[in-house]
Structures are given as C-alpha cells and as structure tokens.
Amino acid sequence: MSPSERRFVISLGCPDRTGIVARIATFIAEHGGWIVEAGYHTDINTGWFFTRQEVRADSLPFGIDELRRRFAAVADELGSRTDWRVADTGERRRVVILVSKEGHCLHDLLGRIGSGELDVDLRAVIGNHRDLGPITEAHGIPFHHVPFGKDPDAKAAAFREVRKLVDDHDPNAIVLARFMQVLPPELCEAWAGRALNIHHSFLPSFAGARPYHQAYERGVKLIGATCHYVTAELDAGPIVEQDVIRVDHTDDVTDMVRKGRDAEKLVLARGLRAHLEDRVLVHGRRTVVF
Amino acid sequence: MSPSERRFVISLGCPDRTGIVARIATFIAEHGGWIVEAGYHTDINTGWFFTRQEVRADSLPFGIDELRRRFAAVADELGSRTDWRVADTGERRRVVILVSKEGHCLHDLLGRIGSGELDVDLRAVIGNHRDLGPITEAHGIPFHHVPFGKDPDAKAAAFREVRKLVDDHDPNAIVLARFMQVLPPELCEAWAGRALNIHHSFLPSFAGARPYHQAYERGVKLIGATCHYVTAELDAGPIVEQDVIRVDHTDDVTDMVRKGRDAEKLVLARGLRAHLEDRVLVHGRRTVVF
Amino acid sequence: MSPSERRFVISLGCPDRTGIVARIATFIAEHGGWIVEAGYHTDINTGWFFTRQEVRADSLPFGIDELRRRFAAVADELGSRTDWRVADTGERRRVVILVSKEGHCLHDLLGRIGSGELDVDLRAVIGNHRDLGPITEAHGIPFHHVPFGKDPDAKAAAFREVRKLVDDHDPNAIVLARFMQVLPPELCEAWAGRALNIHHSFLPSFAGARPYHQAYERGVKLIGATCHYVTAELDAGPIVEQDVIRVDHTDDVTDMVRKGRDAEKLVLARGLRAHLEDRVLVHGRRTVVF
Amino acid sequence: MSPSERRFVISLGCPDRTGIVARIATFIAEHGGWIVEAGYHTDINTGWFFTRQEVRADSLPFGIDELRRRFAAVADELGSRTDWRVADTGERRRVVILVSKEGHCLHDLLGRIGSGELDVDLRAVIGNHRDLGPITEAHGIPFHHVPFGKDPDAKAAAFREVRKLVDDHDPNAIVLARFMQVLPPELCEAWAGRALNIHHSFLPSFAGARPYHQAYERGVKLIGATCHYVTAELDAGPIVEQDVIRVDHTDDVTDMVRKGRDAEKLVLARGLRAHLEDRVLVHGRRTVVF
C-alpha cells in the first residue's frame, strides 16, 4: 500500500439530531482531512444516525492515536458512547478461520488471499477434522486440528482449546466457514461483533440443520446463503449479506448443495470484506452496510 | 392464432419405469404428430415421472376429443389415473381475478392483456372494495363489488357470492391478485389446482400478515415474492415461481413495499403464464414447471 | 404529502478539494436544516466531487427561493458554475411521454401512476400512431396523435409539432417509451438532461434497430434493457439504469421480445424515478446515481 | 461412482422431422435402456433438431462401444452425419488449463476439483509465466512454464510447444483461464469445440483488450463475463454461459476488476461443467445447452 492509499476509517452511530454531519465534517476539515468516501444514514424508526468516513491518512497532521483521541471528544459530544471506531487501513486485518470437513468456503478464501484480492493476515485455520489441513498448509498457513468429541465435556474442552488458539491472535474476524459446530454462549459473547458465520439458506427460512433438504422438501425455486454475526440465538444474528441462486425441479438435494456452494462462497467473501473494511454497523438485529 | 400455431398439449405424471418416453413418443408418431416442444423429468426420490408435450394440432388427423380419447388408453397403460391432461391452445383460457384495494398486480395483468402479451379471456374482476372498479371497466372487463363484512356470517355469505360469480365462468385460473382474504377450506378444495395466489415474501419466510414489516424487522438483504397454488394451509401451497429484489439499510418498510411490488408483478405474471400454458405439474408439495 | 415529508433536494458537482462536505453541511446546519439523506462521491479519475442532500423543508426558516439564492453563493465558492440544482419535492414533477404502437412501457407507467406508486403530474402522452390513445384517455390523460410521414419534410414538421406540444408543459422529464423515432439534434439539445429513452438491449451491445434479433443471432444468454439520456449520438447517451433477464436456447426472438419487455418496464421505471428524484448527476458520458 | 450412477450420454443434432423422438426413445427402450434425463429442442428458424439423453449404463445389455455402433445406424437414418456423440460418464474427463499471471479462475477451478465438486482428471496447467506454478503443484498437478516472447517467431514456437503439451493428453477440454494470448488459427481449428475461453465482459460488448476499462468509460451499470468456444474470430465464438454483476458510480476500474472476477469464476465453472457433461451442442454461432 502506497502512503497515498492509506486511510483512516471513522465509523459512528449516535442519536439523530441536526448538525451531526456538519460537526464531523468540520472536525475533519479543520485538520485538513481529505474525505475520499463518506456514507450517512438515518434510521427514522429508531431515530439513530450512522456514518462512515474514509480520510486519506497523509492528509492529516497526526497519526491514528491522536485522531482517535481527538475524535473521542466529538463522539462524546454526539452522544455516541462506545458506538464508534477509528481504524487504520495500514494495519492488515488479522483473521482466523474455523472449518470442519467441507472445504469450498475455505478454498475460496484461500484463493482470494493467494491471488491478492483479499489482503488480510490469515493467522490460522482451525479444524475439528484433519481434512482441510493439507490445502491450508500448502498456502503457508498454520492449521490446527482440534477434535470435537460427542460428549459435552469433550466438546467443552475442545471449545476451550479453540478459544485459546483464536484469542492468541486477537483477530479482527473469526470466520465460521461451514464450521458445523454451535458456538457456546460464552464464545458468542467474547467474539461478539467479530464472529461471522455463513449459513447455507436464505434466512430466516431453513435455519438449523440440513437447510438444503428443507428447501427441497418445501419446493422453493431459489436457494440462498446468509452471512451473519454469530449470536447466542442460533442463525438469528444480524445479517451482513445474502444472495440466492435459481433452482428448478431438475435439481435434487445434491444439485442444490452444489449450486448453493457458489452462493455461500460469494456471500461469505462479500460479508467478510465489508466487515474488515469497517463498513458494517450493527444496530439491534439490523445492520447498516456502507 | 394461425392454424399452424395451434398446439395440443399433453401433460402426464405416472410411476417411473423404462419405456415411457418411447410409449408416448411412438403414440404421437404413429399418428404423424409433430412434437414442437417436449419436457421430461423423473423425480428419483419419489419414483415419479413427468412429461409435457406440445404437438402441432394440424399434424394430427383428428381433433382434441379424439386425441383425448386415444391418449386415455396410453395414460391408463402407464398407470396415470387422473394425473394427465390434454389441452388445446386454440381455446382461450378463461381467467377471473380477485382483488382488494391494492392495484399494482391488477394494473400489471390488465396491461399485459391489453398489449396482447397475455392472450387470455379475462371474464371478470371481483373486488371486496370498489377502488379498482374504474380501471377494470376502462379495459372493458366487468367488475363485481362484493363487500366483505367483519363478522363470520357476512364473510361466509360474501364468499358464497364470490364463488357463484367465479364458478359461472368455469375459469382455468382464479388469480388472487393481492386479495387479502383467506379462502375458506371448501373454496380451496373446489378450486384446487386452479387458484393462484401471490404472496409478498420469499416463502417460507414471512408467511401470514405484513411480510414486509417482518422482513424489515429481521433485517434481510433481499425481499421476495412467491406465486403458489392456494391450499387449506395458509401460504403453504405448492410454489410455482419466486423471485427476489435486493434491498439495503436505506430501504424502510415503505421502500420495501414499493420495490417488492415489482417482484410481485413479475412473479405473478410468470406463474400465471406457466399455469395457463399447462407447464405446471403438481406432485405433493412440489411442482414441476416445464 | 404532509408538511413534514416535504424536502428540499440540493445536488451539486464541483472540482474536488478538501472541506467541501464541511462547507455544505455547515451551511445547512447554520440554518437549522435537518438532513434526512446525504450522498457524496468523488470521481478520482476526473477529480470531480458530487453530492446530493435531502433536507426537511420545515426545518429551514425560509422557502425554496431563498434557499436557492443563498446556496448559489456556496456553489459559486466551490467552483460549481451551473452544475447544481435545488429542488422542492412539494412541486409535483411534470412528465410527458412519447409513444408509438408498442404499449407495454406506457401501460406500466400508467399503472404505477394510477396506483399512486409514481406520484407525478403526467401532462400528456403523444403518439405517432393512434393505438395507445384509448388506454391513455381511460386514465384521464390527454393523448395527442402526431402522424409521422416517411419523407424528411413531413417528419421535420411532425417533430416541430411534437416539440410545441411538449414544451408547452415545460416538463421535468420527456420519456421516450419505445417511441421508435430518432430525435433530431435540435431536440436532443433542447431537451438535454430531460429526455430519457428506454433501449431494448444491454448497451453498448445491440445499439440501433432490432436489438432482440441481433441478440438472437449472436446467441447471448442474457438480454437486457438500458435507460439513458438522449443525446445526438444514437443510443450512446449517459446510462441511468440497466438490467438483464436470462434466456436460453428455447427462447426464439418472439420469446425474447416478450421477456425483454419486463426488463424494459423495470429499467425505465427505475430510471425515471431516479431522474425525477434528482438522484442522477451527469458527468461526461457517465452518471452518478445517488 | 457406483455402477448405478454411471450413465451413457447420447447427444445428437439433425434436420427436424416428425418421429425423431419416437425413433430414439424406441431404440433405447428396445434394449431396456432407462432414461434418467432427456432434453429435446427444435430450432424453428433453422429446422434443426437437438437432443441429449442420459441412460443408466447398467440398464443396457452392452457397453459403450456396442451402443455407439448401434446408435450410429439410428443417427445415420436421422441424417445426423457427424453431429452426434455417445459419452460414458464412467470415463473421467481429461482437462488442461492454460493460464498467465492472474490466478483467480485457476484458484477457483483447483478449489472445485480439490473439494470434489468438479470430478475431472486435470492433467496439466500450462502458464506463460511462472506465477501460478506453486499453487498448481500444491494441488499435485504438473505445471509447465512456456515463456512467450514478443516477436512472432518466438510466439509461434511457444504455441507449438503448448500444442504438444496439450495434445499429449488428448483432453476433452482445454480451458483458457485468463490466458491472455490469442490462439493462432491452426490451434483454433485443432481444438475446435474443445477450447473454452472466459472473457471478462458481457459479449458482444467490450470484446478485445481491457474490457473493464471500456466498461468504465461507457458508464455501464452491470459488468459481465462470457464463457465461449474459441474460434478464429477473436471473442466471437459460440457462447456457452454468461452472467453479470451490478456496479455503480462508486466502483472504479479496480473495483470492477475485483467484482468482475466473481462473475468470471462462476461463468467459467458453469460453462466448463456443461461442456464436460456433454450438455452443449453447437449450431452455427449459437449453442443449445441442455
């Protein structure tokens, strides 16, 4: 990244009132900040205001820490307690991926990283099976195998190990790339706003197990995929991205599984990118994606 | 329609076994029938076979009644009891539309009929409000106003009147174009396989009332519409067609209602066309749409 | 429209530099203006900045004329000569539609207006054939028949009459809803930025005549429609909206014409709405659509 | 593949006349053949008939060679000279991929093969640069580096080497996965009907070099990708599959390149699958894709 491409990204949610845009824009302009992308949104139903601003780092006379310190006063004035962030695109995002046996999402993410499209620091892949170890390591990424027993104690122990492996990297995103294990509530909480799941249906339809089988039984004409933040309630977290693919009567469950994978890969990749670029602001059960 | 464009449409479902295609194709070929479109499908899970054939009417030495009589023997031989039809595209399909106050689907169908795109015999539009009478009559179509009271007796009486008005036309399709009234079980049964509803969500998500509000609350990124056959279980009949439209955080419920209308209109028009062209074969809760 | 729903819409293009957002937002905030929607965009290649702001009319202490007068100074300061507008959503937009024989786009627009979805003041429909007169008048809209001869003089005279009929209404939009006549250069100029055409292909593919035939010959798997501003170069004006519909080998030209209509109707309706809501800013051959 | 999943795939094009379906279906039925999927299509404009049939291999009393020998007589009778094939899904398809520096399509195909979704025998990857060697070899696939000089003689020599490397494997498909070199006419001819290219635009728009730059300049609202057979005329071969992705004014060329890759990957994967499953029948400049 050349110096001129480095950005500071300010995002904030606060109660709506007049003058917010002027307040933030003036704060940035006072310091000579050059805004290269700006998004604003007001949720009229909840009276909440959202913004995301990308400022050229080299247009400001100070660094990220000073910007953060100064912006804290603005955020405070606007009534945004903890609902704001200042990020630096010069810091590569740290990512950990959790997988099971099905590799299509992992292959896709590794391909995007390998071809330079997704510029992240993939720290580790953790699998409850060994299947995806070789391809991970072929990409030069450490793979950790953590077997999950069937009994609750073994499972709890496995999750403690996963948690330790993940938290060691302090990742910006924990990606459940068809992980197939339900995170315990304490992990949902610890990783709130950072854990992204890909569910292989157009939620809220077909939550839970075997969504393609459910879709086939119901005879739907489109199948979908949903990327959402993980919360304690299964498959009910705030949705970041969704898409669908057309199917017809000639597609049995096997065909749906195959075609649906393309939706899963795209939706996860788009959702992860939006998350890592600080484009997603969560408000209750809904998201603003700038 | 020129004589060379007239078709006899044979559709059939029966238990799968070898030789069905040969049996039907030979039957048609024996009489010199010229197949212009043919669809075949086997549902491996249920062991059921489906076919639809379009034959040039002028290639056969006899008319629809004789074709029907002769094909009955083939259908019987193949074990298809009542699960087959022979239709004549030379007979214009009779349609009755049920509406309430919202006119977008009705406007769309009237426009398609008026511009010659949808060549049907629209016999009547029936509304439980008067709002859509003028536009209907401007298109030269009779409009019947049947007010629906709130109490069960008035409602039952209104449905009896609707039924009489509909059945007088012996329609090939009864279209619930945002009718907003739940058909009583006896009408679902009487009109089974002929009553098409447009539901303003991507079913099975958001069945029942106010689907756009439900979609907004859940924060989905796509909204949809579903055209399905009406059955006694609300919004659970076999699906003929579905589609979706992308929304984002800037769309409130009003925007979703507006955008969703485009999906509703398209999905209903496509579903109705498929039904009237005898392209839809129902098997349990699923449909084959050739 | 309730007073609280009335908006003043400011749109502007100007050379990019730091502080523009702050300048505009501060101008609005100084007068107590409540921004309900704001869009910003910088075209890095041309160094041009674009913005569109919706302000609640009842949040400002003055009316549209005073706002326009005061904002002129800001626009001037930012180097935006004539490249800005201030519009009032309280003034219904005046629209004139030009048609030929094919009615699907007209039916669609009349339906949207009739159902209240598109809240415009449709002043007149002008046709070079009489076919679409009755449906226009059934919606209570005046229809003018202006026959177009084949020889250049008759054509020029017809265009003079069309121009007079159109200009009498000083419309915000002149919609060529499958008008099938090429506007002469002087009309392209007189109506620059106000005349919207719907072309029945995914431009730049298949410009000119018989695009569906061209598409069929080339064997494409998607057909499309393009809504663009009319300029002197045929089918080459700035694009406002496009969409496509999937076709396959079973679709002959007739099917493509029929299916393509749905794309045409949607694309024109979306493009027209964006134009009338002052969401479209033209810059050279490209558009910014907020 | 279990014995019950093995299929013989018959595909044929011939002049249309009555009785073709019956002739083929009867031929299959006579030998007890169990048709599991059947497609028929008549191109009315050219009077040409197309069919594709999947027959369970274990339902026939003989093998592929005898089926081919016997079907030759039927094909001959129907006037299909060389325009028919009988394939065996029990024989894995041999594939060679040609690449340059851009790896997204290769990554995608390797991922699909690695995850078992695309069950092919990938014999080799040939690159005119070394960049994609390591990932190819990490998947256990041989990689050949054939440098292409700038002068015509070096280029011709390089193509001779590529041809030799390719032809050694007698592949069912030669995939130009963003190969960036124009095949010489003799290779187009030698590989006719087997060489698939992915072009990064929605053809016929933006043929030739730098299609995303062309798309940006023209201001289109959708970008696309096209999978087509390679012919001597650049980017003009019969189209197998196309798709598009929506862009808007916020997307500069870099964004288009990135987003377009997802369309390229999907379109190439779908086109290749259709080709390898013998679903594509070419007729002039058009394709039938069953």
UniProtKB/TrEMBL annotation, chains A, B, C, D:
Name all ACT domain ranges.
Answer: 9-94
A single GO molecular function, which one?
formyltetrahydrofolate deformylase activity
| Pathway(s) | Purine metabolism; IMP biosynthesis via de novo pathway; formate from 10-formyl-5,6,7,8-tetrahydrofolate: step 1/1
The family database entries (Gene3D superfamilies) matched by this protein are listed as: 3.30.70.260, Formyl transferase, N-terminal domain
Q: Where does the signal sequence lie?
A: none
Does Hydrolase count among this protein's keywords? yes
Q: Quote the catalytic activity from the record.
A: (6R)-10-formyltetrahydrofolate + H2O = (6S)-5,6,7,8-tetrahydrofolate + formate + H(+)
Nucleus keyword on record: no
EC no. given is 3.5.1.10
Assigned keywords, A-Z: Hydrolase, One-carbon metabolism, Purine biosynthesis
**InterPro entries linked to this entry:** ACT-like_dom_sf (IPR045865), ACT_dom (IPR002912), Formyl-FH4-Hydrolase_C (IPR041729), Formyl_transf_N (IPR002376), Formyl_transf_N_sf (IPR036477), PurU (IPR004810), PurU_ACT (IPR044074)
Q: Which residues catalyse the reaction?
A: D235
Gene Ontology BP annotations: 'de novo' IMP biosynthetic process; one-carbon metabolic process
Q: What is this protein's function?
A: Catalyzes the hydrolysis of 10-formyltetrahydrofolate (formyl-FH4) to formate and tetrahydrofolate (FH4).
What NCBIfam families would the database entry show? Answer: PRK06027.1, PurU
Into which family does the record put it? Answer: Belongs to the PurU family.
**HAMAP family found in the cross-reference section:** PurU
What's this protein's name?
A: Formyltetrahydrofolate deformylase
Query: Which species is this record about?
Result: Saccharopolyspora elongata
